[in-house]
Every structure is written in structure tokens, then in C-alpha cells.
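Following up on my earlier thread - several people asked me to post the actual chain instead of describing it. Fair enough. Here it is, all 449 residues.
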Amino acid sequence: MAMDFMRDNASLGLTTDQTEKVLQFQDLTGIEDITVCRDVLQRHQWNLEVAVQEQLNMREGRPSVYASESRPPAVVTDHLGQHIYYTPPSDGSGSGLRGFIQNLVGFFYNICYNTIITFLQLGQRLLGIENQRRVEPIQEVMEFIQEYNEKVCNSHPVFYQGTFSQVLNDAKRELRFLLVYLHNSSYTEAERFCRETLSNAEVITYVNTQFMYWACNVDSQEGRRVKGVVRVSAFPSVSVLVLKEGRMTVVGRVEGFHDSSTLLHRLRTIVSDFEVNLIQARTQRFEASLNRSIRATQDEAYQESLRADQEKERRREEERRVQQEQERQLALQKQAEEERRESIAKEKVESVSKVPNEPDPTDPDSVHVVFKLPCGLRLDRRFLKTHSLEVVFYFVFCHPKAPDSFEITTNFPKRVLNCRPKFPGEKVLTIEEAGLRNKEVLFINDLDA
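Reply from S.P.:
Thanks for posting it. Predicted structure:
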């Protein structure tokens, strides 16, 4: 069967990874219908872990994360195709003229009750009156489940632990049959039906496998509302709902006491006759999902092509921008270099005035200094011992052949002379303080070389 499914779905747009997830999901959940497994995974965007956890939660009767009360699906009755099975009470109260009158009174009671409730709700909405409920629907359901376990029977199919609106949403979303049981303790055969029929192991297994099972007390507000929706006319009563033509439809009612074998036979008949609706719905959902997938693939391919074109254009624009920026930076650097050279040339001219006159060779305080420039040129000049090393720097700086940025070092031992203050207020040594004697040779090192 797995190989057939893999072969069949290869042409339906399922990838190998998706097909393997379907088979894994079937193994983990035990769902026999493999197409159901596929549909569940599709609804959960092929997230195997989330889909499995959701199914396990629902098996325990907990509403799915998608169950909502805000917009529950409408419930209609299939008057022509609906299966109605009725067993009169064993005491004879439901047969003959008495039973006819009871059914007739019940029928008109339901019509009058539902009409009055509808008009009251409409009037409250028009007048803006808030309907203050005594008990929330979820609380009524949970109280009924607790009371059923404690006082009636603790062996039963798994109760759905949510409101009727929530179970409608889940049954529609999961494409499951919904079995609704309304408990009426005033009927003598109600508890017998619960203890003998609904507690039967075969009934429990079948209901848990084929249905989502919801129950409530007909004396509660939620129970009375649901009674009017599914149009119950006798008790005990179970109603079967299924998604048919896009709406949750009451397709079967089993009313009056039924033993387990009879109930199973009639439920199987209803499921067999109306399962085609679920098959059609699954097919339609899969085809819609497949069409969406194809459109998504086409859209993704188009978007990918568009992104590629946009990326090419972005790269071309980026290259143009980078080239323009490089040209701008080169122009700025060139301009800055020209301004720097002009500034240095101007500074050299201005620095001439900072160099004092050369002392007389016979002056005992004079020091003869020879400068070796990087270009090979030799300069010589006399300075006084009291002259600052800054004077020595400006003498070299003023020369046209001197580098724009340089340092002055001694020959041996080699050391760099600090000829200019590093920060405002710093004192520069004199020639004598720097240790220069009567005749010195100094080297000019180009810092830009």
C-alpha cells in the first residue's frame, strides 16, 4: 500500500520527503486512511511533529488550537437524505395515540422555544443589551463530563472537552463525523443507554475511531441550544453530523433506547452512506491545495527570476556607485594632495623668516652642522649653541630639495632629535642641550618614502 501511495502521489505534486512524512504520520497515529494522513499534514504545512501532537490531543478530547467559537459553521438538516431511527420506550409511552401526541407537543414546543429565543436574542442585540450568561458553555460541558463519570458511568467514548461551536469547527477542519449525545436524566432509559450501550467496548472503539464525540446535559443552556440545532425529538438521542456541500449537516439521528449491536449497525449504515461526502471534501481540499502549490511554485519561480534580475541590476548599480565613489575619492585625494603641497610650499616660504642669520665662523659659540638629504645633496650651516633645534628644523624645511615630512637623526650613536614641540607649551632643546658639538653630521630621513 505504501508503494502504491508513493507511486500514485508522484504525479500529484508530492515530493519524496512529503510522501515519507505521510507514511511516518500513519505509523505514529495509526490512521488507516492514508489520504487522511496526507490531508492532515497539508493542513499543518507538512510539520510532522505539530500534526502528530495535534492528532494525539484530539484523541484525548482536547480541542485543537484552531478550534474557535467566534464564527462556528452553520448547522443544517438534510431533510430528504437524513437517516432517522427511532425505538419507542419499552413502557409503551411512545407508541399509539399517546406517543403521537407527545411527539406532536414536542415538535411544537421546539418550534416555539427556538422562535422565542431567536426573537429575544434579536431584541437584545437591537437594544444593545448584553446577555449575561449564568454559566459559560465550556463550564457546562466540563461539569457534565465530570457528573457523567461520577454518577452515570466512567466507561464511554472520549468526550470532546470543548463547546459545541469548537467541536463543529474541529469536525469541519479535520473532516470527521461528529456524534452528538444529549443526556436527559428525566427519561428512564437514558442512564440504561449510557451504562449498557455507550459503555460497550465495541461501541467505544468504533466511536473513537470514526467520530468526534460531544455530549452535554439537555437541562443546561448549551444543551438546550444544541437540542434546537440538531432538532432532537426523543431521548436518549445521538445525532450524526458531517460536512456536506460546505456545511455541517445533520445526516442521522438515532433516538430511543438501542442496544450496542443495533446502535453499531445503524451508525455504520449512516457512515457508509455519507462517507462519500468526506471523500469528496478531501479530494476538493487536496486539489485546491495542489493548485495553490502549483501557483505558489510558479509565483516563486517568477519571484526568483525577478529577484535575479533585480540582483543583477543592483550589482550593476553597486559597481557604478563604487566606481563613482572611487573616482570621487581619487579626486578628493588629488585635491587634498595639491592643497597639502600648496600649504607646505607656503609654509616653507614663511619659515624662512624663522631661521636666524648664520653666525661668524670665528664665533666661539658657533657649531658647524652638515646635513645629508635623501636625494644626496649636502647642506652645511653654522648655528649658535643657544639656538633651538626648531631653528635647525626650519633651516632644512625651507630648502627646496628637502622632503615635506622628515626627521633629523645623529650619526653615531643614532638618535632622533626632537626638533618640534609635540604639544603646545613643550620646550625644545637647544643645540648645546641636545649634545651637538663644534662639528656635526646630521641625516635627513624622508618620512613619506
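The first strand starts at residue 75 and ends at 77. That should answer part of your original question.
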